[in-house]
Structures are given as structure tokens and as C-alpha cells.
TrEMBL record:
InterPro entries on file: H3K4_H4K5_MeTrfase (IPR050869), SET_dom (IPR001214), SET_dom_sf (IPR046341), TPR-like_helical_dom_sf (IPR011990), TPR_rpt (IPR019734)
Organism: Naegleria lovaniensis (Amoeba)
Entries under Pfam families matching the protein: SET
Protein name, per record: SET domain-containing protein
Gene3D superfamilies linked: 1.10.220.160, 6.10.140.2220, SET domain, Tetratricopeptide repeat domain
Ranges where the SET domain occurs: 167-268
Superkingdom of origin: Eukaryota
An annotated GO cellular component: nucleus
């Protein structure tokens, strides 16, 4: 029942012809699922490690290029809209003179992005949303029957329920593209078919990945048709990462995956309380998560709307670059929690401490940043898996800040005659960061050392 996989999968992955649910399972090589199973892709654990059923941490399950992608609105003047390279002293970006919207590093990127088609639409509709731009890119990517099949096979196969904002989006999209020549696309003739567009928008809503840079900041969005077959869990055993060429990598992050267990990634931020995660999963992905964390009756994670509005206010200040005001809001959350520990869930404290650390880095107040980053760690360790990219970056941030503070103290010690020696505070965090980087951040164009180097916080 299993057919061989395309080259982007490693050989131990096989694809079943049953496409009903499209879940990936860990497979021990003995207990082959029957054809009535919903299993779509199976991980042959026994091929990877003799005698064991669980793949090792860091095992690469698949690597894939995006079928279509677009740069995020906030990043469009900072990175090339096709190759996603960052603007730097050695690399200039030119803004398209016609639409004044898109930026490219070269004519090759301008042409490869098929910008001329989009340019016409952007000139008339500069307020376009990311999902509309991604939809147009999706149209442009459909050049063969196979390309069309890949998109049409994405979940859901049929329109599921009335989603008013997606219906509106379908209507807006018709207007966006009505004057464009989309004859190069095999689905171009459907550019104003509202029902078809509504279904495609549902697929885009459920299957789009945020493309992140090394620091896990979102720089774009894309469709990756194979990776999007992974289901979600709030206790995931796999994670996705990106390289600088927008390739996605799915790697194992739990060394205790049993045969028959689904292989999962997370669709929403894990540093959030259960009702909020569930709400997001329901709204965007239309399912109720039944993972151990969501169904736990032991550690209930309740919402606190008062704290949430304070965090939201802080976030608004941050967006407007009013960092000190944002810091005041986050600090109020921290002090409320310290004065009444049971008032709201620890997760909110984790969010506030983490935000304080990042805000103080931006303000150049590194001692405070270090203090909050270290204080946030036990909470991040509780809600993120042990081998998780964001956790690795947090350890790295502590290490870099620690190293900077040590350096400053040594400098003071050299210039003053009396000073105490500074303990080596940074190495403990480097030691924690390194296993995560060496197992997860290992892309074709990267060694973990490159990533560590690129992630240096510049002081
Ligand atoms: C990106 S797709 C994942 C692959 C999909 N299951 C398929 O077979 O094509 C997202 C959709 O999968 C389903 N899904 C993902 N994780 C799930 C879970 N933990 N429980 C139930 N449904 C899930 C939901 O319908 C969701 O909208």
C-alpha cells in the first residue's frame, strides 16, 4: 500500500495511498498499518536506529521548498521579496518604481518573482493583505497539472462551513486580480470563481506556515504541501525550522516516540493558556485539540482577561516603539504576580518576563535584560519541549548577555585597582544552548556555529 516517496523525503518515510487524514506516524517496521488506517505517511523508526522504535532527537524527517510564498508586510523594505536576503551594507534593495511596494536585490529576483503580474494589481490595491498576495502567488505557481493537484489536495478537500471573512476575501480577491492576465496559470481561468476561491482561501488559512529567520522572527508566509500534512499537538514531538533559502525542515524533538504514535508539530504558540490555544486552533484550523496538555485535568490553565488586556496594551506600545511604556505594563504584570501568586497563571508571568528581557535588549539595558531573560527560563522550560528552537534562542540570549556583562566587569577591573572577580555566568547558558543548536539548527547552508555566530546580539 505504500509508494516510494519523492526525493525531498528521506528514504525511511513512505507515503500511503490513503489520504483521508494525512497524519504522520512513527512506524517500527513490523506493525504495518492496514489499508483501512488513516495513516498517510509513516516514519520507519527501525531504519534509523537498530533495536529501538524512536527516532533520535534532531532526525530530519523532511525538507521542502515552498510551493509559493510571500514576504510579510512589515519586512518588505528590509529583505529582498524573492530571495529573502537581508538588506545590509553590501547588499542594496531597489524598490519597484511602478508599485512602490515590492523590493528586490537584483533583476534576477524581480523576474523570478514574476513581479510584473503582481505589480499591476499592487498599483491599484496597495492595501492588499498577505493572504491575498499569497493566493495570487499560489495561482502563479500552478504551471502543471501536478502543481494544481498538490494545492487542490490540501485540507479541506471541500468547503466545510460558512466562514464569512473568507467569503469576503474571495470577493475582494476577484476584484484584485480581475484585470490581470493569469493565463500562465492552469487555474487562471478560475480567478473570479468565488466558490473556488473561497475553498482555496480555506486551504490557505489551514496550511500556511509563517516563514521565520534564525531568530524565529516571522519574515514571510508560504505553502509547503508535504509539511502541511503534519498534524498539531501542544506537546509536539517534532518541530519545523527554516534555512535562509526558505526551505522548511521537520526535525524530531522527542526521543521517546512510540511506534504508532502520530508525529506532530505545533501550529500555535505554546506559551499561552489552554483556552487561548484552543480558540486559535478552532478559529484558524477548525478542530478541537485533544492533546495531553489540552485535556489535562491536573494543571488547568485558566484565562485572565485583565492580565491579557494589560499584555495587549504593552504589545500596542511596543508596536508604536514606545518601549518604556511597554516595559511599565509588563512590569505591572510581574509585580501583580509577585504580590499575589495565585491571582493568574504562571504562563502570563513567563510572557511578561520574556517580553521585558527583549525590550531591555532593545533599550541597551543589558543587566536588566539578563536578569529577566534568566528569570523567564524556568517558565519557558515548563511549556516548551526540552529541544525546542525558541528555548535554544533564549539560552543563547542569556549566554550572550552574560558574556557581555562579564566583559564589562573585567574591563572595570582592569581600569580600577580594586574589584572583585566576576564568576563565569555565561558558560552555563552556552552549555544549555549548544545541544539544541547542534541538533536542530543544522541546515545545508549552516553549521550550528554559523547560526550561533549570526545570532550574536550586537552591543
Ligand atoms: C495543516 S492540515 C494537517 C494535515 C491534515 N490532517 C490532512 O490530512 O491534510 C491542518 C488540518 O488538519 C486537522 N488537524 C491537525 N491537527 C489536528 C489534531 N491534533 N486533531 C484533529 N485534527 C487536526 C485539522 O482539520 C486542520 O485544519
Amino acid at each position: 500500500m505504500n509508494k516510494a516517496c519523492s526525493s525531498l523525503f528521506l528514504s525511511f518515510l513512505t507515503i500511503s495511498e490513503n489520504e483521508e487524514f494525512g497524519r504522520f506516524y512513527c512506524y517500527d517496521g513490523h506493525d504495518e498499518p492496514s489499508s483501512s488506517d488513516s495513516t498517510q505517511i509513516i516514519y520507519r523508526a527501525s531504519d534509523n536506529r537498530k533495536g529501538g522504535t524512536s527516532p533520535r532527537i534532531g532526525t530530519l524527517l523532511l525538507k521542502e521548498q515552498p510551493n509559493c510564498f510571500c514576504v510579510s508586510e512589515e519586512q518588505r523594505s528590509r529583505i529582498c521579496n524573492y530571495c529573502f536576503r537581508e538588506k545590509s551594507e553590501g547588499m542594496k534593495l531597489s524598490r519597484c518604481k511602478a508599485c512602490k511596494y515590492s523590493h528586490y536585490c537584483s533583476m534576477e529576483c524581480y523576474n523570478a518573482d514574476q513581479h510584473l503580474v503582481e505589480c499591476k494589481a499592487l498599483q491599484k490595491h496597495p492595501q492588499v493583505t498577505n493572504s491575498m498576495r499569497l493566493m495570487l502567488k499560489c495561482f502563479l505557481s500552478c504551471k502543471t497539472v501536478e502543481d494544481v493537484e498538490k494545492i487542490e489536495n490540501l485540507s479541506p478537500k471541500q468547503s466545510m462551513k460558512d466562514i464569512e471573512d473568507l467569503k469576503q476575501l474571495a470577493i475582494l480577491f476577484c476584484d484584485y486580480v480581475k484585470e490581470l492576465d493569469l493565463s500562465i496559470s492552469l487555474i487562471g481561468h478560475r480567478k473570479t470563481d468565488v466558490d473556488y476561491l473561497y475553498l482555496l482561501f480555506q486551504k490557505i488559512q489551514r496550511n500556511t506556515f509563517s516563514i521565520c529567520n534564525d531568530e524565529m522572527n516571522v519574515i514571510g508566509s508560504g505553502l509547503y504541501v508535504h509539511t502541511s500534512l503534519f498534524n498539531h499537538s501542544c506537546v509536539p514531538n517534532c518541530t519545523v525550522l527554516f534555512d535562509s533559502k526558505k526551505n522548511i525542515y521537520v526535525r524530531v524533538i522527542n526521543s521517546n516516540i512510540k511506534a504508532g504514535e502520530p508525529l506532530t508539530i505545533n501550529y500555535v504558540d505554546l506559551l499561552d493558556v489552554t483556552p487561548n490555544r484552543q480558540h486559535k486552533l478552532d478559529k484558524q484550523y477548525h478542530f478541537t485539540c485533544q492533546c495531553p496538555r489540552c485535556t489535562s485535568t491536573v494543571n488547568s490553565e485558566e484565562r485572565n482577561t485583565h492580565v491579557e488586556s494589560m499584555l495587549e496594551m504593552a504589545n500596542d506600545f511596543k508596536q508604536k516603539n514606545q518601549l518604556q511604556e511597554a516595559i511599565n505594563c509588563y512590569s505591572r504584570v510581574v509585580s501583580k504576580k509577585k504580590s499575589s501568586p495565585k491571582l493568574f497563571h504562571d504562563i502570563y508571568l513567563g510572557i511578561a518576563l520574556n517580553a521585558l528581557a527583549h525590550n531591555y535588549v532593545e533599550l541597551g539595558e543589558f543587566e536588566k535584560a539578563y536578569h529577566y531573560a534568566v528569570e523567564s527560563l524556568p517558565l519557558l522550560e515548563q511549556y516548551y519541549p526540552e529541544f525546542y528552537p525558541i528555548l535554544g534562542l533564549q539560552y543563547l540570549m542569556c549566554a550572550k548577555l552574560g558574556a557581555h556583562l562579564e566583559e564589562e566587569k573585567h574591563h572595570q577591573a582592569r581600569t580600577q585597582t580594586t574589584s572583585s572577580f566576576t564568576p563565569n555566568i555565561s558558560s552555563q547558558w552556552f552549555q544549555k544552548a549548544f545541544p539544541i543548536f547542534s541538533k536542530l539548527f543544522i541546515h545545508e547552508d549552516n553549521t550550528p556555529f554559523d547560526v550561533l555566530r549570526r545570532n550574536q546580539i550586537t552591543f
